[in-house]
């Protein structure tokens, strides 16, 4: 639900520095949209994500703004907070689920719903090898995979036998 420029529909404002590739903010916008809250985007000259987020929250009728700075910082800010104390911080290089959660949190702030945990979203994107679960050999994985396939085939056969009766 993108809001046109100059439109007075209450919306979350998302401001990004002019050097930021606009395609990189899609996941943030998807998060806002999934929560059913309108958003408004704008390109600004300020390079600071914090400044952009503050400006965005000041200009939003909902008091919620997101800023994406030149260095790739992403900040969610609320008008009622001190300007140097943003609500959430992230990086544009974070996984898309983290960025989507940050956008959703902007919308959830408006709706008065609990926030999504950005740290949990980041944690869920860490590959298994990085979590210390790499002590299973390839042979064991293959054995497990074959056993699961065997069980699924057996279950499927049992279901089809019952349908024919």
Write the layout of secondary structure elements.
Elements: E1 12-17, H1 26-34, E2 39-44, H2 49-59, E3 64-68, E4 73-78, E5 88-91, H3 96-111, H4 118-123, H5 138-164
Parallel strand pairs: 1-2, 1-3
Antiparallel strand pairs: 3-4, 4-5
Helix pairs in contact: 1-3
Distinctive features:
165 residues; alpha/beta; Rossmann fold; 5-stranded mixed beta sheet; 5 helices; 5 strands; elongated; B12-dep_deHydtase_bsu
In short:
Helix content is 42%, strand content 16%. The chain has 5 helices and 5 strands.
How is this structure best described in words?
The chain is α/β, with parallel strands linked by helices. The chain has a domain at 12-111: Rossmann fold, CATH 3.40.50.10150. Helix content is 42%, strand content 16%. The chain has five helices and five strands. It has helices at 26-34, 49-59, 96-111, 118-123, 138-164, and strands spanning 12-17, 39-44, 64-68, 73-78, 88-91. A five-stranded mixed beta sheet has the order 2-1-3-4-5, with helices on both faces. Helix 1 (26-34) runs parallel beside helix 3. The longest helix has 27 residues, at 138-164.
């Amino acid at each position: 639900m993108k809001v046109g420029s100059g439109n007075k529909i209450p919306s979350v404002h998302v401001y990004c520095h002019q050097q930021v590739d606009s395609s990189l903010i899609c996941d943030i916008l998807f998060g806002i949209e999934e929560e059913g809250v309108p958003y408004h985007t704008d390109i600004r000259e300020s390079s600071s994500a914090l400044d952009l987020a503050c400006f965005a929250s000041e200009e939003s009728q909902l008091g919620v703004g997101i800023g994406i700075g030149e260095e790739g910082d992403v900040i969610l800010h609320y008008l009622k907070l001190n300007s140097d104390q943003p609500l959430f911080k992230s990086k544009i290089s974070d996984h898309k689920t983290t960025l989507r959660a940050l956008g959703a949190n902007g919308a959830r702030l408006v709706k008065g719903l609990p926030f999504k945990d950005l740290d949990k979203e980041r944690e869920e994107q860490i590959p298994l090898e990085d979590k210390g679960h790499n002590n299973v050999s390839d042979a064991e994985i293959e054995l497990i995979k074959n056993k699961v396939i065997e069980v699924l085939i057996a279950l499927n056969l049992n279901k089809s036998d019952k349908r024919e009766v």
